[in-house]
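---------- Forwarded message ----------

FYI, see the DUF4292 domain-containing protein record below. Original note from H. follows.
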Amino acid sequence: MKKQLITLVALVAIPALSFAQTADEIITKNIAALGGADKVAAVKSLQFDQSMSVMGMDMTGKVTTVVGQSSRTDITVMGQQMTQVVDGDKGWAINPMAGGSGAQALPEDQVKLQKGNTYVIGTELATAKDKKYPVELVGKEKLNEKDVYNLKVTGPSGVVNYFVDAATYQLAGSKATITMQGQSGEIKSQYSNYKTVDGLTLPSTIELNSPAMPGAITMTLSNMVFNPKVDSTIFAMPK
């Protein structure tokens, strides 16, 4: 009886072990598609230009990031500049289109969500592996008629499902249910137009769907520079 029990436990454990190894293998191949773990780890700061289109309205901006710590986004829309910053566990924003010209502190839940912007777009699974976040392989499915692997990652800001192209192992998209200011909704992203810059292959187009926006946002990234000198004072909230 004891021998049969041991055999049963072994049979149950083997699929679970294989499942975990498969998830790790997918992430390893995703990192290789990016350019390798060393290339990802070498990026300590970055800057890039960003253009956005939503419901026929065009916006331009610039993003400056210290990886894992701080990020500042300056966006020009209809002749006015909006600024949003996350710096450690704090954040602030200036939004004249909301009726104010002064800096306002961001709510804690928004800062928590914006922390994801302090990493290089497209390297989310490399970050999950580096930080040892729990990862579960949900299965294989279709996204825009392509076969993708669905990986569920549980991180500090909550649970995010990442979709990895089964052919290229590049990140094809993501989805997450967020709660902000007492309301919850699902945010979906799709990544495309991968380009190689200094040995790193990253998406240059991101389509974002959020319940907080009236329509899909298409973002195009350009002029990406890795490891520029960054003046830390740009993240300080104006008094």
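H. also flagged this: The chain has one domain: 2-58+106-228.
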